[in-house]
Amino acid sequence: NRVPRIQLDDGHSIPQLGFGVFKVEPTETERIVADALEIGYRHLDTARIYGNEEGVGRAVAASGLPREELFITTKLWNDDQGTQSAFDAFEASLDRLGLEHVDLYLIHWPVPAQDRYVESWRALERIRESGRARSIGVSNFMVPHLERLRDETDVVPAVDQIELHPAHQQPEVVEYAAEHGIAVQSWGPLGQGKYPLLEMPEVTEPAEAHGRTPAQVVIRWHLQRGFIVFPKSNRRERMAENFDVLDFALSEDEMDRITAIERAGRLGPDPQHFG
Ligand code: NAD
To answer: What confidence score (pLDDT) does residue 5 get?
Structure first.
């Protein structure tokens, strides 16, 4: 499988293209993840709050794939932030996944109002030391949250998973991450179907020119920007389409046109106030 890997600052590496399971029904997850693995995805992104870790674990076990070929991420939910509560939540996630270790464990949201993300990060540092999460990172952390971790803790997050798609590119976070060796993961990479990204001429014209679909063009844009991306679909043909993006490249002009879509409009909650 030819998916490029991104080198993380902690010495591990991650497949740049994966499969996300937000809003995949728990009862359907095993089948959908089995399809994804059959298509060739080896990087899976789940979270405790998605309620489908068991299904992910069952599909992984049934696949018979060697564990070292897979890269599996899950996340600490807001209510579980703290020290002992984070340890317990992590163990419970591993149990549900049926795994001995995850490749990446993330704090899902900073939740500044409860002011426990620094404490939670120290718990993740210890989880990493135990070897049961190979890498640790954060999600939805903006620059001030990353700065606080830098001031008050020892380990730099390996990744920051943030809302990122052409209309919302978060240049401050991306620049900070580049300066500090934090890899960026794009969530909602296709705009979650919430704005007509796949119908915009900036996307459809290169799609026509390359004989590709608009979704493939947007996924290429993420890959060529250096972001880690894991689009979600319940539909096998779209999963295959989203994975089939490794044999063409957008030109610099095509990239620039898509980048110019930026209009600083987030689709999801504001991380400063969510939770
Ligand atoms: P996405 O941008 O991947 O959009 C998914 C939707 O796009 C699908 O439901 C479908 O309607 C459409 N779609 C998918 N493939 C398509 C195709 N080929 N053609 C046309 N339409 C297509 O949004 P997402 O699922 O929210 O984000 C991806 C992953 O990011 C999630 O599954 C999850 O793993 C992660 N995520 C993380 C957070 C976080 O807070 N950390 C938040 C949201 C999502």
So the answer is: 98
Q: Where are the domains of the chain?
A: 5-194+218-249
State residue 120's pLDDT score. Answer: 98
Distance 50 CA to ligand 1 centre (A): 13
For residue range 38-69, list pLDDT tens digits in order.
999 999 999 999 999 999 999 999 999 999 99
Q: Is 117 a catalytic residue?
A: no
For every residue of the chain, DSSP letters joined together read ----EEEPTTS-EEESB-EE-TT--HHHHHHHHHHHHHHT--EEE--GGGT-HHHHHHHHHHHT--GGG-EEEEEE-GGG-SSHHHHHHHHHHHHHHT-S-EEEEEE----GGG--HHHHHHHHHHHHHHTSEEEEEEES--HHHHHHHHHH-SPPPSEEEEE-BTTB--HHHHHHHHHHT-EEEEESTTGGGSS-GGGSHHHHHHHHHHT--HHHHHHHHHHHHT-EE----SSHHHHHHHH--SS----HHHHHHHHTT-----SS--TTT--
pTM of the model: 0.98
- At 1, the pLDDT band (50, 70, 90 cuts) reads low
pLDDT exceeds 80 at position 237: yes
- In ligand 1, the atom with minimum distance to the C-alpha of 165 is 2
In this structure, whether the domain defined by 5-194+218-249 belongs to CATH 3.40.50.300 is answered with no
Q: Give residues (CB < 6 A) around ligand 1.
A: 20-22, 45, 108, 139-140, 161, 187-193, 198, 215, 230-233, 238, 241-242
